[in-house]
From TrEMBL:
GO terms for cellular component: mitochondrion. SMART domains: Semialdhyde_dh. The keyword Lyase does not apply. This is Semialdehyde dehydrogenase NAD-binding domain-containing protein. InterPro entries: AceGlu_kinase-like_sf, AcgluKinase_fam, AGPR_AS, AGPR_dimerisation_dom, AGPR_type-1, Asp/Glu/Uridylate_kinase, NAD(P)-bd_dom_sf, Semialdehyde_DH_NAD-bd. It comes from Sphaeroforma arctica JP610. Transmembrane segments: none annotated. Keywords: Amino-acid biosynthesis, Arginine biosynthesis, ATP-binding, Kinase, Mitochondrion, Multifunctional enzyme, NADP, Nucleotide-binding, Oxidoreductase, Transferase, Transit peptide. The keyword Transit peptide applies. The lineage of its organism: Eukaryota, Ichthyosporea, Ichthyophonida, Sphaeroforma. GO terms for molecular function: acetylglutamate kinase activity; ATP binding; N-acetyl-gamma-glutamyl-phosphate reductase activity; NAD binding; NADP+ binding. The active site is at residue 476. GO terms for biological process: L-arginine biosynthetic process. Residues 342-468 form the Semialdehyde dehydrogenase NAD-binding domain. Coiled coil: none annotated.
């Protein structure tokens, strides 16, 4: 792979070996120090390459250089767009030296800064969704032109320097599919690479220069983040080295301080909790984690550095000299692993199951120990879900197998309605004789109408949940509707009327008009006009009838609920605001505002926002409350983690961002 056998000979966290020049004494001329260490077997070209390194490599680095590159090796080098603009000459010089040393780089490049400049010059306002550029047809055309231009620059510069190179811009080297067309349009993820072609080029000592555009199935190019492409190539090609190049040369914190080392096992949870780890920085760290997921050596590493230090991968001392950020896979201690609660998930292929795994993978006190999905059995989780880096393979557990699976602290049943009973019965039967029972959280509606299960709305049943073994997770609409009504439930004069609109992820993954973006375009679909299951659920919890009509809209995730509440007495907007503010004071996942909350401000967030609080001018006993929440998060996965935290004796919001 990209891991070399010499990495274990160095101390990565303690004192490092001194460069040879410092061992021999800085008063010696540099050429003398180097000459003392050089083997006579090195060619003149290779000696010249080493002469360019400052400080000079130590004896261990020289030994690594002599032994490693007797046969051609592969390196994956991701080149940021700013490097092409600012440091192309330096980059090409270093690539030429790698090439001469028998290390053939496979180059992946983007063109973000160039894209931004071009879009600005043409008056196109870039649109971002969750930190990622939305690429419509007009933006895609510009991307194709920009990436072709940048690719030509790199290839031509290499050829001018006497290095054979071949460029690829969305012409079949990378195959991809839409990441999520409804969200990001012509943005893709990689499904395959032309590996035989790449290996033939490397064998012929021709440097491939690959732009981060993939060919899609419908004849369109797909814009793919270059960090994602580099990670896919690294996992496919298993290169000796993987390097991410940027002008800054590493990962910097919010104080602009370089992080010289990241140990993923040790530092992952801490990093993911940092507010500055978001968007591009978060994506980059996630991709590096994907690369390292399969490595069996705890010293496996990926380097993030600048072009001026690229040559040092030849002597394997970037980490030693702290030239950039070195990311290690790291070791997991037995104590740390055993301290975490082990979670099993049944039915993980749906949208909620995916979000649940995204949250738990970064949870400081939980590990996913088992994932069952009939569709994905045998595949790795990290290969099927974007942004999830768990190398665990899916199983397909039957109810009986579930009951005999040991060492699980909590099971989450993410199954369609009507399927949970056999699994719960098997668990109860298997654990009855032992006198123990793992926590079970059922995400379906199967157990929301029985007192044998604890209803999992923490804002109302927090104390009960700390003692619960069987927890029924509330529905998404039901969560928002209850939180809209509960502070006024004792003053209701008639059934509240709830108008709910959800993004189409609420319709699940099985194809239907309710989750077809084309059918939903410029459309709003009402369904289950009366007696919707969430209408019955809220009625049971509030203790009075409510009227609810759901609708599905063209966005992907997020719910808006407008609730008309007729009170038994007149009130004012200010009084209602104060009632809700007091009712939810101290609640970590509820925000109360006088403004009308918007879906777009809440999608991807873990909280419910309740606001509006308008009182009718003609009927001062009529109040309108608006609430928004993410149907996949607080409406499902986040609430599940809240409930798991409470039932397992953990901090309620552990693993959940409250920002």
């Amino acid at each position: 792979m990209f891991v070399n056998n010499w990495a274990s000979m160095r101390s990565l966290t303690g004192a490092s070996r001194l460069p040879l020049r410092r061992i021999l004494g800085s008063s010696l001329p540099i050429s003398v120090s180097r000459k003392c260490a050089y083997s006579t077997q090195l060619s003149k070209d290779k000696k010249t390459i080493l002469d360019r390194l400052d400080p000079a490599p130590d004896a261990e680095g020289l030994k690594y250089y002599q032994n490693t590159f007797q046969q051609p090796q592969i390196a994956v080098v991701k080149v940021g767009g700013a490097v092409i603009t600012d440091s192309l000459g330096e980059l090409v010089s270093a690539l030429k030296d790698l090439h001469k040393s028998n290390l053939i780089p496979v180059i992946v490049h983007g063109g973000g800064p160039q894209m931004n400049q071009r879009l600005e010059s043409e008056g196109v306002e870039p649109v971002y969704e969750q930190g990622m550029r939305v690429t419509d047809k007009a933006t895609l055309k510009i991307a194709e032109e920009v990436f072709q231009s940048e690719n030509d620059k790199v290839v031509q510069a290499l050829k001018t320097a006497g290095v054979s190179a071949q460029g690829f811009v969305g012409d079949g080297m990378l195959q991809g599919k839409y990441l999520d067309f409804a969200k990001w349009k012509y943005v893709g993820k990689i499904t395959s690479i032309n590996q035989p072609k790449l290996r033939d080029l490397v064998k012929s000592k021709i440097i491939p220069v690959i732009a981060s555009l993939a060919a899609g199935d419908e004849g369109y190019s797909l814009n793919v983040n270059a960090d994602v492409v580099a990670a896919f190539l690294a996992r496919s090609l298993q290169p000796l080295n993987t390097v991410y190049l940027s002008p800054g040369g590493g990962i910097f914190d919010d104080q602009k301080q370089l992080l010289p080392e990241i140990n993923l096992k040790r530092d992952w949870d801490m990093l993911m909790a940092k507010p500055w780890v978001k968007f591009g920085t978060k994506l980059k760290i996630e991709q590096v984690r994907d690369i390292l997921a399969d490595a069996t050596d705890g010293d496996a590493k990926v380097n993030l550095t600048s072009p001026q230090h690229l040559r040092r991968i030849l002597v394997n001392d970037l980490a030693q000299l702290q030239l950039g950020t070195t990311v290690h896979k790291g070791e997991q201690t037995t104590e740390s692993s055993s301290a975490k609660k082990r979670i099993g998930i049944i039915g993980a292929r749906g949208y909620v199951g995916r979000e649940l795994m995204r949250i738990i993978q970064s949870h400081p006190n939980m590990d996913i120990a088992c994932v069952s999905s009939r569709q994905f059995v045998g595949q790795r989780v990290c290969d099927t879900i974007e942004g999830v880096h768990i190398p665990l393979k899916y199983t397909n557990l039957s109810p009986d197998e579930l009951g005999t699976t040991e060492g699980i602290d909590a099971w989450v049943l993410a199954l369609p309605n009507g399927l949970s009973e056999t699994y719960v019965t098997a668990l109860q039967g298997a654990h009855q004789s032992k006198g123990t029972m793992p926590v079970v959280v059922d995400l379906s509606a199967d157990n929301r109408f029985t007192d044998k299960w604890t209803y999992g709305l923490p804002e109302r049943y927090r104390s009960d949940l700390t003692k619960a073994k069987l927890i029924s997770n509330p529905g998404c609409y039901a969560t928002g509707a209850q939180l809209s009504i509960l502070p006024l439930k004792d003053s209701l004069a008639s059934p509240p009327v709830v108008f709910g609109v959800s993004g189409y992820s609420g319709a699940g993954t099985n194809p239907s008009p309710k989750n077809d973006p084309a059918f939903l375009k410029d459309n709003l679909i009402p369904y289950a006009l009366s007696n919707h299951i969430h209408e019955r659920e809220v009625t049971r919890q509030v203790g009075q009838n409510i009227h609810f009509t759901p609708h599905v809209a063209s966005w992907f995730q997020g719910i808006s609920l407008t609730t008309n509440i007729q009170l038994s007495r007149p009130t004012t907007s200010e009084e209602v605001f104060e009632i809700y503010k007091k009712a939810y004071e101290g609640e970590p996942l509820i925000k109360v505002t006088k403004d009308v909350p918007l879906v777009r401000d809440n999608a991807g967030k873990h909280h419910v926002c309740v606001g509006g609080f308008e009182v009718s001018a003609t009927d001062p006993s009529r109040v309108v409350v608006v609430s928004t929440l993410d149907n996949l998060l607080k409406g499902a996965a986040t609430q599940c983690v809240q409930n798991l935290n409470l039932a397992l004796g953990l901090e309620e919001t552990a693993g959940i961002s409250t920002e």
